Amino acid sequence: MRLLACQTTIPATRNRLDQRDHLDALAGRLRTAASQQRPQLIVLPELSSQEYGEQAFEAMDELDDDLQGPVTAHYCALAQELRCPIAFGVARRSRRADGSLQRHISQVVVDAEGQLAGAYDKLHCAQFGASAEAAHFSPGERLVTLDIAGWRVGFMICYDLRFGELAARYRQLGVDLMVHPVAFTRDFSFTSWHSFVITRAMENQCYWLSLNRAGNGWGHSLLCPPLVTPEASPEVLGEEEALVSWQLERDTLERARKRLPLAGDRRQDIDRLATGPLPSPTVTTASQ
């Protein structure tokens, strides 16, 4: 699979006009990048349709989308034009069963025909460090996997990375590539971000694309292979904007899974094992 990973600069967006200007400018850069090497999947960062921060969150009435609004329409048209699926970030508006409004941090995928293919809502809203999401967003309730160019692709967003049971569930679903858009700035959680990505990729034996926005205090996106060795290391970007074409190889997946046979060696009874101190010694009586 050929990925176009877009660590892109996202300007201040406080209203729909700001957002439209940003989306139009980004579309131009995507057209240029896609014309050089045609991708099979274009990926954008978390909330790539708007600024990440309290001022933008307070202007959500101007910036959100219900999958029938201007942001989704923009990417449907662009995906159809480029003949390539696009995974983009947006604040998704929906209604609860009681009719009240809620919003999610979502990664939406439109296919090469410009049709909606899926929408993953972030399961864990971050409320620590530089993140203050809980006052503005609701957690999602479902996982999303899609078959794209013959690959099983799973989705999670930023803070979701920290929960190993979520990644393990995606492994059970047969994911080959995890698309992990993020908004990591330089708070305390930044230091451990790459370590988590490498661990998750290796323990679940899949490619892992962790894609940040560009700019001072952001950046450093990485693509991690399913097995890190002296010959195969994660590819890491800097802070500046970068639209990078990465080729993923199925042979790399198969070799990693064969070389380190976790699937066959993983015990299925861990949750049933006894706990406690050392077992009592067995006392034997000598025969008389």
UniProtKB/TrEMBL annotation:
Gene3D superfamilies: Carbon-nitrogen hydrolase. It holds the Pfam family CN_hydrolase. InterPro entries: C-N_Hydrolase, C-N_Hydrolase_sf. Residues 268-288 are annotated as: Disordered. Residues 1-250 form the CN hydrolase domain. It comes from the Bacteria. PANTHER family: DEAMINATED GLUTATHIONE AMIDASE, NITRILASE-RELATED. This is CN hydrolase domain-containing protein. It comes from Halomonas litopenaei.
